[in-house]
Design brief:
This protein has six helices and seven strands; from the N terminus they run H-E-E-E-E-E-H-E-E-H-H-H-H. The protein is of the alpha+beta class and about 220 residues long. Among the domains are: about 70 residues, Nucleic acid-binding proteins (OB fold (Dihydrolipoamide Acetyltransferase, E2P), Beta Barrel), CATH 2.40.50.140; about 70 residues, DNA polymerase, domain 1. The strands form two sheets. Strands 5-4-3-6-7 form a five-stranded antiparallel sheet.
């Protein structure tokens, strides 16, 4: 029984999120019934938590116009991850949490991987709420052309085009699209098809060699 003592008493060589105990001997499969699990019991470990300060609140507009609220945090280490932001979901969730820059929050990891807000442990006295976008300002058909007010959704649309299941534009991450936008090279959703390597290279942070690679990948989508 040495192996039992080893597994029960020594640190495990892998991550666990709980403990399951089975009755011995176990029931045979033909005796199992839905909703009847008296022959086993399970416990989840209490998730690790850490506190951090909210630095700012961002409102991210997705491709279809949905607005997600993201808290930018003072970076903290949680398990094996460095957490810098946490997604609160829709604006109504943010209003329920009533959290702004300067507040102190407690975080945990959902499923051992996704940062999750557990509670607000301290709020600043002066509540300066950032102005959120109007809920009806964006929809699945808005922001097909670029403008200052449409930047977030327009950028999300461009990033979506790069996905393998859409146009599969390899190497065109969100940051690359952002550089083209900042350089004034793109005015509508498909104006990038008319760009030349020279125009692409005018964007800050894109070299001549990189510009030709991007131009080639753009042409592969035709």
């Amino acid at each position: 029984m040495a192996w039992r003592e080893r597994w029960y008493r020594q640190p495990l060589p892998f991550v666990t999120d709980g403990v399951v105990i089975h009755q011995s001997p176990q029931r045979v499969g033909r005796d199992w019934q839905p909703g009847q699990g008296s022959w086993s019991a399970a416990w989840k470990h209490q998730p690790a938590e850490v506190s951090s300060e909210v630095l700012s609140v961002d409102f991210n507009v997705g491709r279809t116009g949905k607005i997600a609220v993201v808290l930018n945090l003072q970076p903290v280490q949680l398990e094996d991850k460095t957490v810098r932001r946490v997604n609160l979901g829709l604006q109504r969730c943010w209003k329920q949490w009533d959290v702004i820059a300067g507040d102190q929050v407690t975080l945990s990891l959902a499923g051992l991987s996704i940062p999750r807000l557990e509670r607000v442990i301290w709020r600043v006295a002066q509540r300066d709420y950032p102005p959120p976008p109007q809920d009806d300002a964006f929809n699945p058909l808005s922001c097909l052309h670029f403008s200052a007010g449409c930047r977030a959704q327009f950028l999300s649309r461009l990033s979506w085009l790069s996905h393998k299941s859409v146009l599969d534009i390899a190497g065109m991450q969100r940051r690359s699209w952002q550089r083209l936008l900042d350089g004034g090279s793109i005015s509508h959703l498909f104006s990038w098809l008319a760009l030349t390597p020279e125009q692409i290279a005018q964007a800050q942070g894109i070299s001549t060699v990189r510009a030709r690679q991007i131009w080639h990948r753009f042409n592969l989508t035709r």
